[in-house]
Automatic annotation (TrEMBL):
Transmembrane segments: none annotated. It comes from Thermomonas aquatica. Keywords: Signal. InterPro entries: DUF1501, TAT_signal, TAT_signal_bac_arc. This is DUF1501 domain-containing protein. It holds the Pfam family DUF1501.
Amino acid sequence: MPHSTRHDRRRFLQGLGALVATGTAGALFPQLELIGQALAAAPAPGDYRALVCIFLYGGNDSYNMLIPHAQAEYDLYLQSRGGVYDATSNPFGLGIARDSLATVADGSGKNWGLHPAFAAAKPLFDSGELAFLANIGSLVEPLRKSELASKPQPPYLFSHNDQQRQWMRGHSTGTHAANGWGGLSGDRIASLNTGLTALPPTISVSGNNLYQSGASVLPYAVASSGPTELARMSSTGSQADATRLAALEELLNASQDQQMRARYAGLGRTSITVNTALRTALDPANGGDIATLFPATPLSAQLRMIARLIKVSQGPSIGHKRQIYFAGLGGFDTHDLQMGPSRHAALLTQVAQALAAFRAGLQEIGMLNRVTTFTMSDFGRTLNSNGNGTDHAWGGVQLVMGGAAANGGSLQGRQVWGDYPLLELDGEQSMGRGRMIPTTSIQQYGATFAHWLGVGDAEMATIFPGLGNFAAPRLGFLG
């Protein structure tokens, strides 16, 4: 390597080190790794639309979130779960008592039970603003139990990292694929955002993630409290402020090789512009706050910030028409103490209350019918106990929240879509221990959201490899 190049790279790294020491580099570079020109997108409706993905990390025990209420189906559930949990008389049981369930009726009149800790979601379901998608998971093609030995299965079943990546990619092929379906969808709708074009359509309040990584966009990461403060860099402030600013300017202006210079200088300056614009727009003095009260929980804080970002994105300083948000909540890997008061029940309470508050916030800003919120999670969990909790399984239940179709929204809510299986340990749809073989694929799930957002049918096979293996490329829960 020529001496000048080594020297330039050394100066670059030294400058970066100065920024890291101030906590500034993380605000400047990771969140804008892929700002650039979006691919041309087909014309779409002029109204605003946003997707909000909530990833439940660890594998949600979703068959304890939505429980069959009909007596015969409930009895199967209870038998598989080892009976009703009782800390004294049945500490190995995972079942929820039928008389404690929050009962809801779907559009056909069939009753279902929500975990009592999830009761805050009942009004959403009853109003048609919430739907459940049953037995979704990673699939290469439709698969029955009798075909397990003859048909391909997704790689690395039951592995957290691998199944998270497959959910975020939207398919189970190409285990090293670097793009997620949210990011690839963002590539195709970014050109509709003609205001602050430097802000990508993919915004995360839960850090960088594969889901929002496209070919031309990466997530712009903000904290649940808002964009990172950059005001400590100033030529008119303290000596420390001036030092930080000088380090940044040296970093951006250093004569590295042309590729490094263009990449980092462009990203750095663009991120400062976007950061300033967002901080200004979100300032309560400029109308960037909302009045809706949210619980003091991590997920609620994330969704509150998303509601504020959606609000200000309608203003002239941002002017976006399509956005894809990402939030996340961990703790769902309940191998032990699952039935304890601070474990699964507490997580379900946090999710349900956050959704209810987010719904109210969207109503406040007039965006209830223009935002669709949904969950993803690694996998379901075994129906029977490992002695203190549950283990990794396969298919599970996800939820979708949005404006009810009956009230001008897009969601066909108050329904349980897909095929909710009989909850047997070794039945026709389970592999043993109640590991359910999915009957709906993550490709179909993701393609339904991407289509609603405005991605054309011709793009679906590229974004969701293997989608053509399934008879219904889209599901019917979104109009």
